[in-house]
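Subject: Protein record for review, amino acid sequence with backbone structure tokens
Why sent: The fold of this protein is of interest and is recorded here as tokens.
Enclosed: The protein record, placed directly beneath this head.
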Amino acid sequence: MATTLKVINELFDETISDITSNSNSWQSFLKCASMNYKYDFNEQLLIYAQKPNAVACADYDTWNDTFKRYVKGAGIALLTEEDGYSRLRYVWDVSNTHSKYGVRGKRV
């Protein structure tokens, strides 16, 4: 397993322990999860672990093609399984995007 995958797996385990340890952590997680409802629980957990104040997350192509926004900054790593192998895919919060000058896309 690559180092990055190992780190993300450890982060996942730590975050589960954290959010189940007290009600304030759980409420904070639920607030973040409610903003990113299209993601499954495991992905919401990793979004919360890496960017607790995330409002709207999407992948690179969605930000560029659908919303006409360019991505700047570090992405949020999510675990996914493809052909029986674990790998990472990245999403970005709206706070890490900027509008392309002079281009109108869908409202975020």
In short: The first strand starts at residue 57 and ends at 58. Helices lie at 3-19, 23-35, 41-50, 60-66. The chain has a mean pLDDT of 91.
